[in-house]
Amino acid sequence: MFLGSKKNSNKNKRNSQIDTLVGSGTELRGDVHFKDGLHIDGVVKGNVIARGEHSMLTMSEGGRIEGEVRVHNLVLNGTVEGDVHASEHIELAPAARVKGNVYYNLIEMAMGAEVNGNLVHKAEKLTEIKQPVPAATPIAGGVSGGVAESGNS
After folding, report:
1. Which is nearest to 56 in space by CA: 15, 93, 117?
2. What three-state secondary structure class fits 136?
3. pTM of the full predicted structure?
């Protein structure tokens, strides 16, 4: 009786509609912001950030992200070179490779999955995924005549 309602809850999360597909021959450069569902078979060189309460990112074995990932739900079977933030659920499939820290609320890890970084449990459920902080931010009341530099040459 109680197990049935929990199963339906998990089923709804995992069967989220995939609205966007990054194909296996595709390479995107720059940040990707998405809502609902995103599946990656190709390469994303930039951050992947979800908008929406029940967002879902899935990656196949050939998928690769070179940047930070901030999502609610993640099923990973590819490679991420950067930190991963999953506010609800993360599933690391056998071919999953993460070179960075994994921040999670609930994690499933299959035999063969690799994390080269820290696993950090975040017990509180985030209602909104925070955006990455820019490299340089202006300081109010700063030194007059000074120039703020972002460090990019």
Report:
1. 15
2. coil
3. 0.71
